[in-house]
Amino acid sequence: MSSHGLALAPPARNVVVYRNGDPFFSGRKFVVNQRRFLTFEAFLNEVTKSIHAPLAVRNLYTPRHGHRVAELGDLQDGCQYVAAGFEKFKRLDYLNHGRKELRGTRNSQGLQVSTSGWLFFPTFHSCQNTGSLHVLGCFYYSVFRNGDLLSPPFPLPLSKSTPLQWDTLLATLTEEADLRSGAVNKLCRLDGTQVSGGEELVNGDYYVAVGNEEYKKLPYFELLVPQDSAYKTLWYV
């Protein structure tokens, strides 16, 4: 038996993994040891399933600076990481869950836009509360990506007290949706009709972010929203 074969296995490490660009996900704990994960790919596959990632996780990053983790041995006990597919790392305050509005800049309308593309209003922190939709002074919407039947809808909470700037909203949707076709130019209802302004949005409804291409009529809700889940109960009112 070689000297390598006689080497002691490294001790188990406890790590926490967040979803890239998701300010609502509080992180999932993992125990990493050689018996459970023989390769880095095996660990990434487990992360994909456990955090319910819309696409396969292929990269891990450090949460503060976005440094890429190259192999299983680089994981440190007690540390946190951000799981991503092939998209770029999105900067959020992952380590202070519920305070994501700290990263960003204010535009001329007084809206705070984070570097990850999430739109923050003055009362956005209260909109993150997962309790009643009717007492927080917030509207909630869910948005699918046009033609994408692999990614679940992403949440879009907006303050009732702040005037909605449509161009700003489309810019934010562009960053969040990350459509292959590029910028989000319109927002459509599930029947394909286009929404022309914020006054047409209905609290709790589902919409589809569309680029320059035509709206693709697909069973988004039926395939991507679990019919008996709390997710449907929360967003579809």
Outline of this structure?
This protein is of the alpha+beta class and 237 residues long. The protein has helices spanning 3-6, 40-50, 124-127, 166-177, 220-224, 230-235; strands spanning 13-19, 28-32, 59-61, 68-69, 80-84, 105-106, 112-113, 119-120, 138-145, 154-159, 186-189, 194-195, 206-210. The relative contact order is 0.11.
Based on Cα principal axes, name the global outline. elongated
Number of strand segments:
13
Question: What would you report as the Rg, rounded to the nearest angstrom?
Answer: 20 Å
> What is the count of DSSP helices, taking H or I runs of 4+ residues?
6
Widest β-sheet, arrangement of strands: 2-1-5-3-4
Structural class: alpha+beta
CATH class of the domain at 138-223: Alpha Beta
The largest sheet is: 5 strands, mixed
CATH architecture grouping of the domain at 138-223: Roll
Q: Give the terminus-to-terminus CA distance.
A: 64 Å
Helix fraction by DSSP (H/I, runs of at least 4): 10-25%
Beta-strand content estimate: 15-25%
Protein name: DCD2B protein
GO cellular component, one term: microtubule organizing center
Organism: Burhinus bistriatus
GO biological process, one term: intracellular signal transduction
Give an overview of the whole structure:
By secondary structure, the protein is an alpha+beta fold. Among the domains are: 13-84, Doublecortin domain (Ubiquitin-like (UB roll)), CATH 3.10.20.230; 138-223, Ubiquitin-like (UB roll). It is built from 6 helices and 13 strands. It has helices at 3-6, 40-50, 124-127, 166-177, 220-224, 230-235, and strands at 13-19, 28-32, 59-61, 68-69, 80-84, 105-106, 112-113, 119-120, 138-145, 154-159, 186-189, 194-195, 206-210. The protein has a 5-stranded mixed beta sheet, with helices on one face. The chain has a 5-stranded mixed beta sheet with strand order 10-9-13-11-12. A 3-stranded antiparallel beta sheet has the order 6-7-8, with no helix packed on it. A hairpin with an 8-residue loop joins strand 9 (138-145) and strand 10 (154-159). It starts with a helix and ends with a helix. Residues 98-126, 128-135 and 229-237 have low confidence and may be disordered. This is DCD2B protein.
